[in-house]
Amino acid sequence: MKIIIAHNYYQQSGGEDAVVEQEKALLESKGHQVRLLAASNDAIGNIRSRAKAALGTIYSRGSRVQVEKEIKSFHPEIVHIHNCFPLLSPSVYYACKAAGVPVVQTLHNFRLICPNALLFRDGKPCELCIGKKIPWPAIVHACYRESRAGSAAVASMLAVHGLIGTWNSAVNAYIALTSFSREKLIAGGLPADRLLVKPNFLYPDPGPGRSAQDFALIVGRLAPEKGIATLLSAWARLKPNRKLKIVGDGPLQSAVRAVVRNSQIELLGRQTKEAVLNVMESASFLVFPSECYEGFPRVIVESFAKGLPVVASRLGSMAELIDHGRTGLLFQPGDPQALADAVEWMFTHPVQLEQMSQAARCEFEAKYTADRNYEQLMEIYRSASNA
Fold first, then answer.
1. What is the pLDDT of residues 13-36, one digit of tens each?
2. What number is the average pLDDT over the span 53-78?
3. CATH number for position 272
4. What's the rounded Cα separation, in Å, for the pair 198 and 196?
5. Band of residue 315 on the pLDDT scale cut at 50, 70, 90
6. In this structure, are residues 79 and 4 in contact, taking their beta carbons and an 8 Å threshold?
């Protein structure tokens, strides 16, 4: 099969970008011909280029022409789009539709129903724009990068394409990463009969292997929505010998660094994927205190692959991915005492922790391997072709 994968890369590479690379590698390993059509937000620099990107968010003629050329030269059977915001724009759907090529769209976040893509505002989940034909609350609250102008540009894109029926007529199949996300997207107006659930995966499988050294681990962006303040407050309530290693960087890095000077917390900074997996081999468990719904936290799948149980917020996708008491523990989001209690339990129940470790690896083998994911992806491609 010939497949075009289209993706607008982010300025700061994250899980979405990694999924694109892994899915491309997986498809090629199965004998498919894959062409990557990429745009990058690095191209958005000065005021002029930002203004051009804002205007093109609704419909980029240049991106449509680019996709038309790729289709004519490559003759794909499927175009699989991961992220078309902001440079590619929904115009790429119409290039595919005009050429009669089915479109599959993976929804890594909530962009099509929420201008800031997170359903998160002022430190807590926000659903004010769900179901609104014009997501005006996002403009009022400057939800996109704290800019009313930027929020208006994204809101306009959503309103225009909702009005002309793009989401219902120009995409053959959508991929939601969890059932939770699917329900929110349907509530936001996306067609239920085209919204299929397929989780992310890990390729290649790093294999199980642990030599626990009695410390907890957190991996991710150090940002307010990730529950970093709750994490630090929880650790202040624990015994002094409870160790935590933090992998990642972000806007709260300075605040975290100020705390770790006189505590059992170690800040490792941003690490390579290989280094993260190595740290996981030595950790007792992962902590994931996010206070937003999340799309599909890749680090949870990595943890399961290594046999690492997870302590996470009972919220959104985390509550769906983690089986409380079997593959980890769930706690009330934003509650530092609840997190501290869960962490303390993990440190003081080694037998149950080992059972959770084995269950986490079994969960990975059952749901998140490359082979399992490939089967699901091929079924979605067939569904899109027959739509």
1. 678 898 999 999 999 999 999 999
2. 89
3. 3.40.50.2000
4. 7
5. very high
6. yes
Query: What's the length of the chain?
Result: 387
Instruction: Count Cβ atoms within 10 A of the Cβ of residue 77 and give its class: 0-12 exposed, 13-18 middle, 19 or more buried.
Output: middle
Question: What would the DSSP string read from start to end of 168-232?
Answer: HHS-SEEEESSHHHHHHHHHTT--GGGEEE-----SS---------SEEEEES--SGGGTHHHHH
Query: Would you state the structure tokens that stand for residue 143, as one six-digit string?
Result: 């939800």
Average pLDDT, the chain: 93
Q: Let me know if residue 187 belongs to a domain.
A: yes
Q: Is residue 111 part of a domain?
A: yes
CB proximity list for 259: less than 8 A, separation 6 or greater: 232, 265
Domain assignment present for residue 210? The answer is no
- Residues 177 and 281 grouped into a single domain: no
Q: Is 309 a member of any domain? A: yes
- Beta bridge partners, 329, equal 311
> Is the overall model pTM greater than 0.90, yes or no?
yes
Nearest to 205 by CA among 369, 27, 19: 369
Total domain count, the chain: 2
Residue 196 and residue 257 share a domain = no
Could you tell me the pLDDT band of residue 11, with boundaries at 50, 70 and 90? low
The arithmetic mean of pLDDT across residues 355-379, rounded, is 97
Read off the tokens for 212: 């626990």
Q: Tell me how far apart the alpha carbons of residues 87 and 85 are, in angstroms, rounded to a whole number.
A: 6
Contact 333, 345 (CB under 8 A): no
Residue range(s) defining the domain that contains residue 338: 215-367
Pairing relationship of beta strands 124-125 and 120-121 according to DSSP bridges: antiparallel
The closest alpha carbon to 331, from 233, 197, 243, 246, belongs to 233
Flag the least confident range among 54-58, 60-64, 84-88, 181-185. 54-58
State the alpha helices, DSSP H only, in the chain. 15-29, 47-56, 61-74, 91-99, 136-140, 148-163, 166-169, 179-187, 228-236, 253-260, 273-282, 298-305, 316-321, 336-348, 350-367, 370-386
Q: Kindly state whether residues 30 and 177 are assigned to the same domain.
A: yes
Based on the domain organization, do 166 and 19 belong to the same domain? yes
* Contacts of 147-150 spanning 24+ positions with Cβ under 8 A: 149/54, 150/54
Amino acid letter, 151: S
**Same domain, yes or no: 224 and 128:** no
pLDDT at 228: 96
Same structural domain, 185 and 251: no
